[in-house]
C-alpha cells in the first residue's frame, strides 16, 4: 500500500531536482555562451506549438464526437458502493463527492476535473507579504545597497504586500474535459527607503491577466488520476501603472513588480496527478508559464516552472488537513520598458529572477447536509524555507489563501 506514495515521492523529487538543476546550469553559464540557451528557446518554440495545436484541436475532436480517451472501467457493483459511479468511495464523482480532500489544498489551481454537465464557481482571497531583500540566498538590509551617487541605487524596496481576489468558474462538457476560467483582481503596495532616510509607498490595483483553458483527462487507474492542464493567460492586466514617486517629485511608470499583468499571451501547460488510499490522499502538479513574444512595452517577463506535491489526511467526513511543498524557479526579464527607470533594483530587468522552496499547511472543509450542503471552504498558509534571488530583490515572507467552492 505504501509503494504508490513512495514511488510517487521518488519520481517527483527527481523531476523537481531535474528542473532546478537545468535552470541552475543555465544560470551559471557565462553570458557569452549562447548555444544552450538557444537550444532551450528552440525547445520552447516546439513545445509551445504542440501545446497550442492540442489546445485548438481538442474542441474539434469533441465536435467530431471522437472520445479522446477511453472511459474509466467501472470497478465494483457491491451493495455499499456509490450508486452513481459504482465505487466504494470516489474522489471526484459529483454524485457522492464524499471527501474533503477530493480537492487539493486551495493554493493548487486546476487540481480536479468535473463530470460531464457539472460546473463549479469559486472565489479565492490570496495575500502575499514580501521582505526583506535577498542577494542570492543571503538576506541583506536595505541600507547595505543604497547611498548617494555613484552608488547604483538610491532607493530600496523595504516590503511589498499583494492581495488578490480571484473569481473562478469551471464547466465540464464531457467527462474528459473540464473548462476553466479565472479572473484575478490585484491590489499591490510597496514601501521604500530612500538613501536620505525618507520613506514612501506606491500602490496599484486593478484586474490581472485572465486565464482560461481546459483540463484534459489522461489516465485513470483505480483511485489514481492524471490530467493535463492546458491553460492560456490573456494580457488583460495593465503594464502601464503609474504612481507618484516623492524622490523624483512626479508621477512615473512604476517598476515591474508593481504592474498588474505580463503584457504577453502566456501558455500555462501542466500535468497533475492525484491519488488516495484510506484516509490519506496525495498529489503532485508540474506547471509552467511560457511567455509568447514581447509586450507593447518592449519586454518579456521571465518564464516560470513550478513543481508542487501535497499529502492530506482525512480527519473526519468533512475535514482534511494538508501539508504541501512547492518549488518554483523563474527567469529575469528579457528586454526592458524605456518608461521604467530609476535608481531602484525593482526597475532593473536583470534583478527579477530566482528560485524558491515553500512549505504550506492547509485545511479543507466540506459542508455536509443543512443549508450549506456541498459548499467547500479551504485555507492554506505558507512560508519559504529557501530562496535564491537575483538581487537585491525582495524575498517572500509568507503567503495565505482562503477559498470558497461550490459545484452545481
Ligand atoms: Cu472544480
Short description:
With 408 residues, this protein is mainly beta.
What would your notes on this structure say?
- The protein is mainly beta and 408 residues long.
- The protein has a single domain, classed as Autotransporter beta-domain (Lipocalin), CATH 2.40.128.
- Helices cover 13% and strands 49% of the residues.
- The protein has two helices and 17 strands.
- The strands form three sheets. The chain has an eleven-stranded antiparallel barrel with strand order 1-3-4-6-7-10-11-13-14-16-17. It has a two-stranded antiparallel sheet with strand order 8-9.
- The longest helix is centred in the first third of the chain and has 29 residues, at 35-63.
- The radius of gyration is 23 Å and the shape is elongated.
- It starts with a helix and ends with a strand.
- The protein binds copper (II) ion.
- Residues 112, 114, 120, 170 line the site of copper (II) ion (CU).
